[in-house]
Amino acid sequence: MLQDGAVLPYVYRVTKYDPADRDQHGHYIGAQGVVSDRGEYEAAYLQAVAAFAADAGLDRLVVREPGIPSFVHFGAAAAADDHGLGALFPDGLHGFHDGAEVQLAIALELVRGMLRDSGAWCRLEADGIFEVHVGWDQYLYVSTSRPSADAVARTRALGLFPESLDASPYAMETGLSDVQRPADAEFWSALAWAVDSGRAGLLEETYIEGASRWHPLSGDTLDAVRAGLAPRARLAVWPALSPDVGAVLGSLPDEGLVEGVWQDTGGRVHSAVADEEDYAELTMRMAGAAAAALMPMNADERVPLFTAVLPDSDGVVRARWRTDPTPDDRKWAFLKSLRPGQVVTGRVTETASFGVTFVDIEGHEGFINIPELTWRPVAHPSDVVSVGQRIHTQVLGVDTVRGRLALSFKALHDDPMKQLTGRVGTTILGPVTKIVPFGVFVRIEERENGLEGLVHNSELTGPPGEEPQFGIEVGSALRVRILDVDLERRRITLSQRQADTEV
Q1: What's the CA gap between 8 and 171, in Å, rounded?
Q2: 210 vs 5: CA distance, rounded Å
Q3: Measuring CA to CA, how many Å separate 213 from each of 271, 320, 413?
Q4: Burial environment of residue 315 by CB neighbours within 10 A (0 to 12, 13 to 18, 19 or more)
Q5: Strand-pair partners of 392
Q6: Could you give the CA distance from residue 259 to residue 295 in angstroms, rounded to a whole number?
Q7: What is the pLDDT of residue 277?
Q8: How far is CA 175 from CA 5, 24, 178, 283, in A?
Q9: DSSP at 355
Q10: How far apart (Å, rounded) are the C-alpha atoms in residues 288 and 249?
Q11: Are the beta carbons of 118 and 67 closer than 8 angstroms?
């Protein structure tokens, strides 16, 4: 069986136009009209599709990439509510979705509606076996996986003209976006986090090309919204609507198309597209709203927080339509490509005063907490790296829900404490760096930020009758013996009592 999107080997263009009635450029010059006659020829088209389906052994087809006219301006002729689909789908447009399996009789009625330009359009297919595409001006294309001699003969007998082609011009294009996020469990966790953190508050559900629903989001409604989405819907996540409706309406541009989205006092979200001639009506409709927003219609400006497409119940995304990836989507795809322990290279963009170093990795931000910057104690990240410096780091953790990338700089450098394991039992002379109630810390490396060890009070040799720390000050030189180097707990244990008398 052919894979989804592969070109079927037998393609026929079926029309009522006699090939003999064409000029030297191939243009039809006969008397046939380019709209459906709603009679003999329309019936012949449907019978021809039925004949090809019978040759393929099919009694059902699947709706793919359904679409309707995208929007109607105020004052323009209103489109039919169901685009002629009410009699075919009891649930209206929500039953007309990508992947919906329909009986052949309903598929033929969909073909009829497309021949009549009723507004709704789709591809009708049986994966790897059969496809039906209705084009402009009563051009119909049938593709099959095997020859259909009987159907071709039947089509001719009906007074139509089947012609062999290499491919249907309405075949689905396979040049898809390199990034497509599925609306899987990970997506919903990310959405819940975005809602809880106040970053997101609105979900746009495109369930048919050209038809959308808006859903307000909260921690309490997220599950209900998810359960009510149409199969294979395309999703876009937006910030919450603004409660300052006056300010929203005050931001209407002088001219141009905008989409107003508003929530009424009952909680229902509405939307409408308008240009400058319709702003007054849009303002009137939005004035009493509880919250609102204006969405740009320019694709370059209409950028949601992140997007996804609903997978089927088995978790596989079979919808062929795609969302336009946002910066957040691209970061998600980048994070999905990483694994803990992987080495990545980037440029330092900031050394923050709170101890975090930010690194640009292929256009995406990662961070290094100060304990992962160096094995040695430092006061500020700038003591180790500088802004603009290109560094190699190791991936510590990837959080695709919050979009975080934790890195380590020190993991790619030798741990100086390992070298000290060979010095256990030796005595050194080092300065006291810190005095605490339970002991004193002594630097055991001859460098300013050298490693330090703890001499517990029980291992100090204070004068008889005095506190163990008597006479010890920060900066005092203390002769100590290295008793233990614990790499796992990052602790060095020292003793003054057990130190050799000579170093």
Answers
A1: 10
A2: 22
A3: 8, 20, 53
A4: exposed
A5: 345
A6: 5
A7: 92
A8: 10, 34, 9, 41
A9: S
A10: 11
A11: no
